Amino acid sequence: MEPSNCKNRRGFLQDLVIGAAALATLGPIALMSRRSRAAAAVPTADGKEYAFVVDVSKCIGCGYCVQACAIENDVPKESIRTWVERYIATDEGVHVDAIDKPGKMLEPPPAELKGKIKWEAFIPKLCNQCENAPCVQVCPVGATFTAPGGFVLVDPEHCIGCGYCIQACPYGVRFFNKETHIADKCTWCYHRVTKGLEPACVTVCPTQARQFGDRNDPADPVGQIYKSDNWHTLKPEMHSDSRVLYLGLPREVV
């Protein structure tokens, strides 16, 4: 090999190493910048920190919330943003089924469980809008970010549909939208909240099992529940700091 070629190759490799090091250093900064820009582009929350309360004792499993969510958010038929699980406990174990599509109604408990049921409960599930959201941490392009007020959102212009966030979510609330080709999930009807409205699922709940409000406002029922500290979250061992607060959550629920 000619000496000049060796020198050129050596210089190329040096530039490549320096470039890679710079990218590794600036990568996290670039992601933080993109998330910051995305958060700055959405409306402010005027100091509000939102939370979602689910009172298990009030949920009757009607499924209105599932249907309202699908209609309001134009959710693809094969997917859901919120669902309701039914837990039936016996001495032999726990039977679980779910309202996992709009219009679905659950049948009475299976005949083999008759006379064995200790308790039965309906557990609504939705995005937890975590303060330490795993989905935000793993997004390689900064498309998933936290907006003012605590909403975890997906920037459709930057999401590449890699699915990392879907795999990282410990609650299984994210899905790949086959129509938009990006990650999708419950947003607590962010588009409604920014207009002063409640999430669609809250408005249609006939028993007020779902409540939404500012956890920092002492006059807000949600704020009062938050301050009482008499609530539980799903999978606290994940340390994701969920913003969905459950009242009367059975320990068997996962």
Radius of gyration: 23 Å
CATH architecture of the largest domain: 2-Layer Sandwich
The pLDDT mean sits at 89
What oligomeric state best describes the polypeptide chains here?
single chain
Strand content: 15-25%
| The CATH topology of the largest domain | Alpha-Beta Plaits
Name the helicity range: 25-40%
Question: Biggest β-sheet, characterized?
Answer: 3 strands, mixed
Number of domains: 2
Number of strands: 10
Task: Tell me what the structure shows.
The protein is of the alpha+beta class. It has two domains: 1-41; 42-81 and 123-254, Alpha-Beta Plaits. It has helices at residues 3-40, 64-73, 134-138, 164-168, 190-193, 200-204, 221-228; strands at residues 50-55, 83-90, 93-99, 119-125, 144-146, 152-154, 175-177, 182-184, 210-214, 244-247. A three-stranded mixed sheet has the order 9-1-10, with helices on one face. It is globular and about 60 Å long. The chain starts with a helix and ends in a 7-residue tail after the last strand.
Offer a quick outline of the entry.
The chain has helices at residues 3-40, 64-73, 134-138, 164-168, 190-193, 200-204, 221-228, and strands at residues 50-55, 83-90, 93-99, 119-125, 144-146, 152-154, 175-177, 182-184, 210-214, 244-247.
